[in-house]
Amino acid sequence: MDLSLLVEDSLNIQGYDFIKTVDSAVSLLRKEKGRLGNFSVTNRLVELQPTGEALVVGDLHGDLTSLTTILQKSAFIEKMEKTKETTLIFLGDYGDRGERSAEVYYVILRLKLAFPLQVVLLRGNHEGTRDLMAYPHDLPIQFQRRFGEGGRMAYERMHLLFACLYNALYVKERYLMVHGGISPQISSLQDIAQAQENQNEALLEDLLWSDPDESEWGMSSSPRGAGKLFGRRVTEDVLRELNAKILIRGHESASDGFRINHEGKVLTLFSRKGSPYFNRFGAYLQLPLSEEIDDATRLMSWIHKF
Ligand SMILES: [Mn+2]
Known about the structure:
By secondary structure, the protein is an alpha/beta fold. The protein contains ten helices and 16 strands. The protein has an eight-stranded mixed β-sheet. Strands 6-5-4-15-16 form a five-stranded mixed β-sheet, with helices on one face. A three-stranded mixed β-sheet has the order 9-11-10. The longest helix has 17 residues, at 15-31. It starts with a helix and ends with a strand. The structure holds manganese (II) ion (MN). Residues 59, 93, 124-126, 179, 251 line the site of manganese (II) ion.
């Protein structure tokens, strides 16, 4: 798969073909169940074997240039073609804010379709449920500008896609990856796997929206108006409960493209640049999953800034 051709396709794609791609991805994701290559799927949770190499990408928010840079610098498409022991993980928030939301979605969906057993797409708060959608949500407007008449239909299809994205990815004895955060309501992986089925969706809201803060004790209300702030004790308790060492999440911009909280227990990755954020760098993580690391400061040699 040629990256520059893929990007060119994304810039030229018309509404009909965009919708066809979304539909193919939805039907693929709906079929994902049980053991698939290096990961296994239970409801909306992916459990990944601690083997091979992973590329972890944080928020993109319509920044096609950063996505292209990451794929180029990591040479991950070539790596995925060469060995199945490679997993490309996106932490969610693909659209809104930046100008190229349709293009970013198109590229990640084509990657998923080309490497179904090696690409995992998590759900961000900008891929929320209809009754809890991030604001401002530019996607429907961008689609109308981009696809004209077909924009509305393309946007409706996106909600089918959002519902298929994963709540979290877990790497045994190592990492829990989510878009936003965690909550004391989590006592097992099963809770995360079925968070979207909870009647009030409160846990899903925390997974997609919450942020760490440096208080010792959580939870407190979030200035975002959705999700909460969780303290260090919540992180320690949940990670211990799940048998994980580090929480890897996106959702918050960081000047260097990444930030470490809770004494090395939380890594935030932010992988886009430009307005309306003011981070100097974007960052991604490319690491060997077999390494047993219990402190995010030790992940720094695998964090790449751009
Ligand atoms: Mn977010």
